[in-house]
Amino acid sequence: MRIICILLASLLSIQAATAQKRYTISGYVYEKGSKETLIGATLFFPDLKIGTATNSYGFYSVTLPANSTQIMSISFIGYTPEIETVNFDSDQKLNFFLEPAKQLKEVVIDGNKVNIAQEIRMSTISIPVEQLKTIPSLGGEKDIIKALQLLPGVQKGSEGSSGLYVRGGGPDQNLIILDDAPVYNANHLFGFFSAFNGDAIKNVQLIKGGFPARYGGRLSSVVDLTMKDGNQEKITGEAGIGLISSRLVLEGPIKKNKSSFLISGRRTYLDALIFPIVKAIEPGLSTGYYFYDLNAKVNTRLNEKNRLYISSYFGRDKFYLRFKQGSALEKAGLTWGNFTGTARLNHQFSNRLFGNFSVIVSDYLFKIYQTNKVGKDEFSLSYSSGIRDYTAKFDVDYRPVIRHTIRSGVLLTHHTFTPSATVVKNSYAPEENLKKKNQLNSIETGVYVEDEWKTTSRLSFIGGVRFTTFTPKNATYMGIEPRLSSRYLLTENLSAKASYALMNQYLHLLSNSTPGLPTDLWVPATDRVRPQRSEQVAVGLAREFPKTGFEVTLESYYKKSSNIITYKEGASFFLDDPFAASAEGDEVRYEDNVTSGKGESYGIELFVKYDKGKFNGWVGYTLSKTTVQFNEVNQGKAYFPKYDRRHDISVVGSYKFNERTRLSATWVYGTGNALTLEEGTFKAQPLTGTPNTPFNSFYSNDAIQYGQKNDFRAAAYHRLDISIQRTKQKKRGIRTWEYGLYNAYARANPFFYIVAPENLFGNTSNTTEAKNALFKIALFPLIPSISYSYKF
């Protein structure tokens, strides 16, 4: 009711305001030299102490009283600001072109931008991609998701995990979208890298709370990534080679100043490096791993009011093993990957009303397989899981006056879930041949409206509401999700903020505890498993120090969640014995293997950012606590989830000595993960009818006895990464060498723990009578890297 009152008051205010004679200027803000649109560029009026920002397509609209003359500043992080004098004596279309700044300098006109204190939204962080690309990383691979893990409120997981754990939530509770298309598995290399090639990304924004009503379907965060549109003026590109992968991006005009393209690709060559070594050791064995990803985008200006964007992403990981000896052949492997495609049509209905229609497809598939063949006899097992979405959505952006920005939209998604598809071929026992597929279809809809309302020079609100429905088989769910963010300026550079958001999530992720393996299964809410739901409240302070270059935010949050799910004790990602029929016939229902529960999380986050002159960076600190409770897990007692961390610290810094040399470093610290220790193992026999091969252990049903759920804390995690970039302007481009050290002081951070005989690693004598001991297994020592890139 409170949100509805705010929206009604908004509309009345708009009606009164538009009774006066007013004029509108509208247009786009571009990067000079490429005509790439700038998302979130600020247009600020110092005399009025008010401003606006461009939307996701670089469009802006400002309406002010007739015959007023105003000084307007146009600015964007990393670009030289422009100052214009605008006469509101008629409706006008004005496009602005900002030039990339060679060296970021302090602001010379006081109050010429909307600073962090004046920004209405809280729990939202945007960092320029170029700055993210200076952060040191494993193997020199620039990783946007890994960089986001350095922000407060975002847990870093562990080695082998590129998932985001935001304010106590799991990886499934993050809405990761690339050009409006959801990406369901953002991992490469068993979690060591994310799926996004930074060379193809223009903008990245992380939202942890106070969610705008236009976002829905997840509980914990939104990661909104936008691909580059492509240079409309000339052919440009960048190529790079490192120890792990090579990459190439190429962009340019299809028709100058009207249409453009972008294409980028990346591939690892670990398989090519390993192949000769494996062949030398074992001639009959071949094994390898590789990943690749491709991004492509075209856009064209159909006319002054219509623009068309078509973009796509395709990524794939593959691990394979093949062994041939005489007439015997054994093969095994796993593969996973994403495909997304987005077609968007922008239409400018008027100088105040902007619309966008999108058609989106997103597909994720995981597959694991095994084949054993001796002569004509064969046993093979293939298991796959995936999710496919088809979405249509329409959004409008209406800016009637400078104090109001109204957004509204509607969305329709058809989900196809395949939690499990099993194919078994067994010539040893033909009666056990099997082809079983579990497929679930559902429809999700959403309607939203939100209003950004600057009520006075000090007080502003973003109020909104989202209505959603979800219709799986034999059930219908509906949800009303109010959202509210507010800001009150205590002084020009200090503000107090508060937000509230209620969220519904109709998708669940069944997560296993195996490090790095992509065996998590996406499943829908059903008539037996209800949708996830959360409420989050946050309050905070934001302070800008214009003269010194510092920004400081301090936030506190509380979040409670319900209907979250996990596997019952003893269940696994196979969901069921593939040879067994369920109680309801051939259809295996995942609900038999899961239990529902609730969660609670609260914490304090501090973010100190510095950006002036040659140095930029930040310090992030999080103090938090998260618990979950399931009636059928841990005897119904609440426990800490794996990535609950009391303390989490990130220090990031980059210093540019001159135009050629830049030094960057990061240091991270986190309380150890909460783990469940193994107390004993009971060996089981291989699956019936399978030959006696080394691969059978992968599919065995060994029973493991554990202690209390997550009652053990791993050692604290901390690491220092360093990189030096050496850049030189060449005749036809810019050459960059980068040298890096990952884990510079060789900290032995725990990857996992095992319980084994105490003389296992130090004595070759018989260990059958030795006492058991706890061993910490570390993964990465100090790892040097070198990479070369050329931008032209």
Please report the number of helical segments: 4
Structural class: mainly beta
Assign an overall shape.
globular
Distance between the termini: 56 Å
Relative helix content: under 10%
Total beta strand runs: 48
What characterizes the major β-sheet? 22 strands, antiparallel, barrel
Look at the structure and give the mean pLDDT. Answer: 85
Instruction: Report strand %.
Output: over 45%
Which residue ranges are poorly predicted, with pLDDT under 50 across at least 5 consecutive positions?
14-18, 103-113, 577-586, 693-700
Q: How would you characterize this protein structure?
A:
- By secondary structure, the protein is mainly beta.
- It is 5% helix and 57% strand.
- The chain is built from four helices and 48 strands.
- It has a 22-stranded antiparallel beta barrel.
- A hairpin with a 4-residue loop joins strand 38 (647-656) and strand 39.
- The model is unreliable at 14-18, 103-113, 577-586 and 693-700 (pLDDT under 50).
List its salient traits:
792 residues; mainly beta; 22-stranded antiparallel β-barrel; five-stranded mixed β-sheet; 5% helix; 57% strand
In short:
This protein is mainly beta and 792 residues long. 5% of the residues lie in helices and 57% in strands.
List the helices and strands and how they pair.
Blueprint: H1 2-17, E1 22-31, E2 42-45, E3 50-53, E4 59-65, E5 68-75, E6 79-80, E7 82-88, E8 92-93, E9 96-100, E10 124-126, H2 129-132, H3 144-148, E11 154-155, E12 165-166, E13 174-178, E14 181-182, E15 187-188, E16 193-194, E17 201-207, E18 221-227, E19 236-241, E20 245-255, E21 259-268, H4 270-281, E22 285-303, E23 306-325, E24 328-348, E25 353-374, E26 377-401, E27 404-426, E28 434-454, E29 459-471, E30 477-491, E31 494-505, E32 507-510, E33 521-524, E34 532-545, E35 550-567, E36 594-612, E37 615-630, E38 647-656, E39 661-670, E40 674-675, E41 678-682, E42 703-706, E43 712-713, E44 717-729, E45 734-742, E46 750-757, E47 772-778, E48 783-791
Parallel strand pairs: 1-8, 1-9, 13-18
Antiparallel strand pairs: 1-4, 2-3, 2-5, 5-7, 6-9, 10-17, 11-12, 13-14, 15-16, 17-18, 19-20, 19-48, 20-21, 21-22, 22-23, 23-24, 24-25, 25-26, 26-27, 27-28, 28-29, 29-30, 30-31, 31-34, 32-33, 34-35, 35-36, 36-37, 37-38, 38-39, 39-44, 40-43, 41-42, 44-45, 45-48, 46-47
